[in-house]
Structures are given as C-alpha cells and as structure tokens.
Design brief:
Elements: E1 4-6, E2 14-18, H1 23-35, E3 39-43, H2 49-62, E4 70-73, E5 77-80, H3 84-92
Length: 93
C-alpha cells in the first residue's frame, strides 16, 4: 500500500485520504505543506481493488459518504473537504 509520509513539525497523527486527480485534495496537501506539518496521505483511487476496499471501509467510519479529501487528526478530528480555517484550528489543538 502506498502511504506517503511527508516530513514536518509533529502535530500528532495526521492522515489524509485523497484522490490523485482531486483539486481540493491537492489544495489540502498544499495547505499542510505550507503549514509545515508532518502528515501521511494515500491516494485511494490508485490502490488495487482489495486495498481500496479496505481503505474505503476505514474512511467510511469517519465519513459515511466517502468523499474526499478526508483528513483525520489524532484519531479524534475529521475534516471533510477543503476547509482551510477548520484545518488550521484543528492543528492548533
């Protein structure tokens, strides 16, 4: 499974579920990079069928509609979609 690790300031466990061609997903990655935080991401659409089903079940626990981007912070906060202020606020905690 291709989980990409991006180095930066440790703000806890940050996982981004994304689609490789999604403009909002790209904006979310760009925001995280600009903020300089460490995070991991996975492009769900590029996974093999069996891996994709497993990851989509994980996403479904946080986001029943499974839309992207889905950002999980410290297994406590879920931000669905590109919401710059909400992401910044969540990373302050």
């Amino acid at each position: 499974m291709d989980i990409v690790h991006v180095k930066g300031k440790n703000k806890g466990d940050i996982m981004l579920y994304a689609i490789s061609t999604c403009g909002w997903c790209k904006k979310t990655k760009s925001l995280l990079n600009t903020l300089g935080v460490e995070y991991r991401y996975i492009n769900v659409d590029l996974l093999e069928k069996s891996e994709k089903a497993k990851i989509e079940e994980q996403v479904k626990q946080w986001n029943p509609n499974r839309n992207y981007p889905t950002l999980i912070i410290n297994n406590k906060i879920c931000v669905i979609g590109y919401k710059e202020e909400e992401i910044k606020e969540a990373l302050k905690q």
